[in-house]
User: What shape does this take?
Amino acid sequence: MTGGAVPAYGALTMRCLGYATVAAAVLLHAGVVSAQTVAAWSPSGYPNLQGLWTNSTTTPLERPDTVAGQQTYSEEEVAAIDAANAGRADREPAAGDPGSYNEYWWERGTALARTSLIVDPDDGRLPFRTAKGDRRAAWARGTDSWADRNLSERCLTRGAPKRPGGYNNNYMILQTDDYVVIHQEMINEARIIPIDGRPHVDDRIRLWMGDPRGRWEGDSLVVETLNFRDEIYQNGFNCCPGAGGALATTERFTRVDDDTIEHRYTVDDPESYTRAWTASIPMRRFAGPLFEYACHEGNYGMENLLCGARVQEQEIRR
Assistant: This one.
């Protein structure tokens, strides 16, 4: 370690001590929040975002080619999509199907009227990636060896902001006058967001979920996050396919009614995208509980993944 890195390490140590204090506060408040009896406003006069929320949805990040130019579905189309997805849970697996053994455990949610989560650009599609962004995105889609398996498979991180997936799309939000904590059920990650005006940490400190700083703007919590690790592109499921260390995100959490938060985030990474883009995802209140996500670094089926690949190779040679 160089001499110049020592102050950064000290700052990180103090930060960890502060986070331990916040974690204790989270445990004290968890029972209150899980009861889902929070008021619309905090004692300090800010919107109260506390509670259990889910952002499960079958609406894709990007607008499918089949509905190009169509920003919303009709009520009949939404009903048909939801009915088709509901029926999948009872469908028997087909003989020789290499996918999941059934559909029962998927937690896909329902469709939005919108045809994509992306609201800017207007076409509902990711903007063109740079050459570097394309290389990163391609890395996440294919691997050459066990050493290249992605961060989610290794139970390291799902990243932030987290976009909806097939399951564990649930969150617990707690807040004080100085912090907002967003606990993700997926991989048990907790985003501890200072809202007391402190500056970002030194640029040399790089984190899997970035370094967030929050503030209130009217009825919205605004969270700006910097200092992502460059290797976040190795997570094929993160918010921003192909993004890296230059990523900066701006999120807005706005209570639109008693049971809904609009979560809108803007992605800006000039190394990976030719322009910034924005997605909007509703978070709906749910009764809970949050479950333990029994996955941690070093706890994964890597041996089975490798064995399965060798079986496939043998079948190809026959």
In short: Residues 3-317 form one domain.
